[in-house]
Amino acid sequence: MFLRRSLLLTLLLAPLAGGAMTPAAFMEEYCADCHDAETKKGGLDLTSLSWDLEQRSNFDEWVKVVDLVAKGEMPPKKKARPEGAAAKAFLAGLGDALRGFEGTRQAETGRTVLRRLNRVEYERTMQDLLGIPTPLAALLPADGSAHGFDTVAEGLRLSSLHMEKYLEAADLAFDDAVQFGPEPAQLSKRMFLKDEKGVRSMLDKPEGELTNKNDPKSKHRHVLHELPDAIVYFNEGYPAAEIHQTPQHPAGTYRIRISAYGYQSDGKTIPMRVYGDNYRDKQLLGWFEMPPDKPRVAEFTTKLRAGDHLKVEPTNTGVDAKGQNVYNIGAHEFTGSGLALQWVEIEGPLHQEWPPASMKKLFGDTPLKKIEDPKKTGNGKIAYELAPEDVKASAEQAILSFATRAFRRPLEPGEGDHFVALANQELEAGRPLLVAMRPAVRAILTAPQFLLFEERPGKLDDYALASRLSYFLWSTMPDDELFAKAAAHQLSKPEVLRAQVERMLKDEKAHAFVQNFTGQWLDLRNIDATSPDKKLYPEADELLVVSMVQETERFFAELLNRNLSVTNFIQADFAILNSRLATHYGIDGVDGEEFRNVTLPPDSPRGGILTQASVLKVTANGTTTSPVLRGAWVMKKLLGQPPAPPPPGTGMIEPDTRGATTVREQLAKHRTQETCAGCHRQIDPPGFALECFDVIGGFRDRYRSQDKGDTATVKNSRSKRLYIKLGLPVDASGELADGRPFTGIQDFRKLLLEQSDQVLLSLAQKLVIYSTGAGISYADRPAVEAIAAKVKQQGGGLRTLVHEVVQSPIFQTK
Amino acid sequence: MNIASAPLSRRAFLRGAGVSLALPFLDAMWPHRLLGAQPAAPKRLVAVCTSLGIYGPALFPKQTGRDYESTPYLDLIKEHRNDVTVFSGLSHPDQSGADGHSSEMTWLTSARHPGLGGFRNAISVDQFVAEKIGFETRFPSLQLGTNNISQSYTRSGVMIPAETRPSVMFAKLFIDGTKGEVWNQMKKLQEGRSIMDTVGAEAKRFGARVGAADREKLDEYFTSVREMEQRLAKAEDWVQKPKPKIDATKPQDIADNADIIGRLQLLFELVPLALQTDSTRLITILVQGRGDVPPVPGVTIDHHNLSHHGQDPEKIRQLELVEMAEFGAFAKLLGALKQKTEGGAPLLDNTMVLLGSNLGNANSHDWTNLPLPLAGGGFKHGQHLAFDAKNNVPLCNLFVQMLQKMGQETNAFGSSSSTSVPGLV
Question: In A152, A239, B35, B259, which residue has its Cα 20 to 30 A from B60's Cα atom?
Fold first, then answer.
């Protein structure tokens, strides 16, 4: 056989303790029959696989060998298989060698290679560093992700395009930080809808007047209705209530109050959507269930862009019991529901100080002087000026203090010189401080110390640890307290670290962790990648999709905040719901837009992330579901055991919605053809169990059809008049790879619960990847297993898991 | 205190159309092509990808060779029949990726398993050429698209964002800035260079503190800084040269994002202008119709949904309407490239135009058997070249052949296994 020739390493030829056979002999005996140069089963030729571990691909291939033997998948059942002891000795020998090799390399270089800020981290860091609200992420090139996350060094490449964009972003940020103007006037105004010009022109024009003189059909019709105390909007879209009575306002945070009630709504609430609209796009700021007949004042605080005006629209309105649209019969005759809007108040911008904090962050101790008579300068637009006593000293102080924060550690002697020199050049050319600061600040914001995480092999120093912790839980730079703890060399003490994690998780900045981690772990960032087919899924409105993502984020946050067990991801007896989702899930008694913890009825198919609409949506396209894709998703995301990609030349199933065939029938081949069944026995079962959920996560016992089928109304919606066609019945039963059967989703989840250790381990892996910026290598496995074991001992809570990750050596080492 | 450089004016300058920094991508500084000493017309490449696939049954002829019977889509470009080769049975190997649309990243790069594990994208075929000849034109390459995603990737696998607004691209290409703007731009470029100088020095200091494993990453930083310096220097040259004068007016952008056909058409109209003025020789265009309904008469369902037609005849009918509109725009592009001449020959003869998709069957996200009509560029066209539908020929073989046609001395690109595809000469 050829095997011996290539296995050069003595290890492979050395007999193992206890006189067991050498790894080479083991492979010759059990593997080489199929995996030699002639047969090359599964594309693997072990005889040509050299023991050159420096080659990443070789190393990975060996890990695969160890894993398959360890799992008992190789040698396959039909072939001669080693006894337990022989396999164990083989695995120990090879495993130790692989671990030893990688362990040595990690000790030398660290497991995390030099990584840069991703664009989310960049934006948040710039905002904190400069005290500005400016969005910057969209300006930068998209980040790659590796091992499932955009925090991993391998995916975060650099190019001259990045440099170009960093320079541009720094310019923009500098502009937004510099505010010499007078304090913006405070808006505080109650605006009545009846006073809106747009409303008046629609209502004051008599009905019947031609809008187009040459078109007798263009008779004006009132589609709004004026009440003594309100204007009623019926249609879900145009004409929407647009508030134009506010003067121009700067970008900032505002408090908004809106008074409205449901009109002719038959005792039901009317969802009210509120947008900020700048004519290019509109952003949903919030939505509220407005009660029937009695006004409610909805109050919230939100960010508005400079050009935004408010726009308010109702949902589930505009069509009466007979199916007539308000457009066709006019508001007077119309008996369907609408939203009676009374008034809107805007207060703000809400800020703590003026000039804003950004000025201090940028110019340090340089005094800022109020200009006595601003009319004389810049038309009243300039109210402050920099008043340095010694302009060079001021520039130096400002630059050094800015660089210290930007670099997230104290400067080394002389480290600020280059930046100060850039400013001095300008000053010496007679330019003022403001002009001189710009190149220095832009250089700091393009420097490697700012863009890259500085970590040295071995245990992280306190500042590097502060950064790692801060970017893990906040996706931004450390705050003053973390810096202070690092300066005092306190941070690496376990109890200090624990207290800091607690403090940080309680801070609202920790939402970034929830959002960025779940956004990638559970693919929530892809929520809008496909839009549900309007004919098949007429109930899929904007509020549903928005609520889906929030449910999953809030569910994760609930586990985190209450330290609930990670097994809740598989199976939970509660859900975090608002009225929109409760309707969608067919759960009664949940009123209002606020999310809350709802105990699920015992027979509910819901509970755990697999049954959440967000996950069910991102694992489907807008039209059909595929058990293969959903099954693979469960293996990859929940169990951390991604199936191998399909071998070359695999046919893909052709989705068919005509109603004559189901996806299960199409997949029948998988069960009969041995070559497919090998993998698909593992992949498909979770997907089969999830077949009882459609592409928007609604429960179904029949497939919806474009063509054949019975007409029915949509049940999981408050809009009564949505029609669909119901086709063939859904079969959500199946059997696991080991033959255990399940009848549906509830049953399946019980079986899955038996794998909760694997789910915990997988989540620990993902948190380590996300927080340390490196994939889990073979040598890392014991460390991650230790984290999972510790968490399990303490009850398996998600918060405990975060603590144990932070406390682990793997987190605290480069 | 002097506050003449109020923030607003600077920002306005930066954001202003027509004066944005038009930075060329290039590796090294080279002397310009000598004016007047340029006999042969340059070779160009235009690659257009419709990332939601092209419905195969309406495109692929049943017969192979020159005497194929036309199909609904090919009917729309029938006047160019002898300038087009239709390929079938070409694809990149190993394109199963993070999701069904991942191969959108690799249509011009062929990197395997996009988005999975430690995936790193490779350089795209247009950038491969831009690295070598990009210095000869004001724009080494152009990226256009219906959103800001493009198909062009740098050597380090970073996507170059696409310009979506024809008016902005037009201004970059043809409208000179005012004297003040040019002066500001020069100042900005010079400031950029001195910043790059400074951070380059900082990176050296930084490098002294990092280990061997980090050196590779730091090198990436160094290279980025060095390239940026060169681009800035190059840009300073171009800023002071007047832009080509042409007989066309600035296009009006289409505000409706859903109108991918109208927007594609406007982008297509820039192509002959940019090529004939030799402003660039490499253009990639990505049509990415995702979640909205394009205003094509008879279409009521959003484009992405249509592509997942599930064999629903109505959806297929509507999908064909959208794609026929795309082919209609393509026909106009070919027509315009034929009409414009240089040295007596149509522009098309020196311009390879590839129209295709990264999906062979979008209904099932199948990335094999890609739809790929190729026009112009000096090939002998007029055929349907069909290869094995089960064991596809690597698309990169065609890329190598195209690269050689562009005068690139290379025998391999990406996953190529040969330097040409059989039958194409």
Answer: B259
**CB–CB contact A706 B312 (8 Å):** yes
What six digits make up the tokens of B7?
Answer: 């923030």
β-bridge mates for residue A282, sequence order: A277
Question: Helix H segments across B137-211?
Answer: 166-174, 179-207
Element (H, E) at A175: helix A160-177
According to DSSP, residue A459 is labeled B
Helix then strand then coil, in percent of chain B rounded to 5, is: 40, 10, 50
Q: What token pair was written down for A709? A: 């089928």
Q: Do B195 and A446 touch (CB under 8 A)?
A: yes
- Give pTM, 2 decimals: 0.87
Structure tokens at B375: 């026009």
Quickly state the pLDDT bin for A15 (edges 50, 70, 90). low
pLDDT value for B11: 37
Higher pLDDT, B20 or A10: A10
To probe the interface with A, which of B9, B217, B393 has the most A CB atoms within 10 Å? B217
Distance of CA B89 to the CA centre of its chain: 23
Q: Give the separation between CA A151 and CA A220, rounded to whole angstroms.
A: 57
CB contact set of B269 (below 8 Å; sequence gap of 6+): B166, B251, B336
The distance of B141 to chain A (nearest Cα, Å) reads 13
Whether the per-residue pLDDT at B109 is higher than 60: the answer is: yes
Task: Name the residue facing B158 among A162, A652, A775 (closest C-beta).
Answer: A162
DSSP state of A34: T
Structure confidence by residue, pLDDT tens digits, B259-294: 999 999 999 999 999 999 999 999 999 998 666 788
B10 contact residues in A (CB cutoff 8 A):
171, 175
- Out of B160, B212, B364, closest to residue A109 by CB: B212
**How confident is the prediction for chain A on average, in pLDDT?**
91
Q: Is B364 on the interface with A (CB under 8 A)?
A: yes
Q: How many residues does chain A have?
A: 814
Query: What's the angle, vertex CA B11, arms to CA B8 and CA B12, rounded to 5?
Result: 85
Which residues on neighbouring strands pair with residue A191, listed in sequence order?
A344
pLDDT at residue B316, as a whole number:
93
Inter-chain Cβ pairs, chain A and chain B, closer than 8 A: 237
Q: List the one residue out of A282, A343, A284 whose CA is nearest residue A307.
A: A282
Q: Is A628 helix (H, G, I), strand (E, B) or coil?
A: helix
3-state helix, strand, coil in chain A (%, to 5): 45, 15, 40
Predicted local distance difference test score (pLDDT) of residue A679: 82
- How far apart are the CA of A120 and the nearest CA of chain B, in angstroms? 17
Higher pLDDT, B306 or A502: A502
Token pair for residue A764?
A: 């620990």
Measured CA to CA, the distance from residue B266 to residue B278 in angstroms comes to 19
3-state secondary structure of A456: coil
Distance CA A289, CA A314 (A): 10
Question: Among candidates B170, B180, B331, which has minimal Cα distance to B244?
Answer: B170
Check if B302 contacts A (Cβ < 8 Å).
yes
User: Least CB-CB distance to A141: which of B93, B158, B196?
Assistant: B158
- Helix, coil or strand: residue B29: coil
Up-side HSE of residue A164: CA atoms within 13 Å toward CB?
21
When scoring B286, B305, B315, B366 by the number of chain A Cβ atoms within 10 A, the one with the most, hence best to mutate, is: B305
For residue A239, what are its two tokens?
């004409």
Contact indicator for A91, A70 with CB cutoff of 8 Å: yes
pLDDT band at B22 (very low <50, low <70, confident <90, very high): very low
Write out chain B residues lying below 8 Å of A167, CB-based.
192, 195
Q: In terms of CA atoms, which chain A residue is nearest residue B8?
A: A175
DSSP H or E run through B79 = none
Put simply, whether A377 touches B (Cβ < 8 Å) is yes
Determine the Cα angle at A596 with ends A591 and A599, to 5°: 90
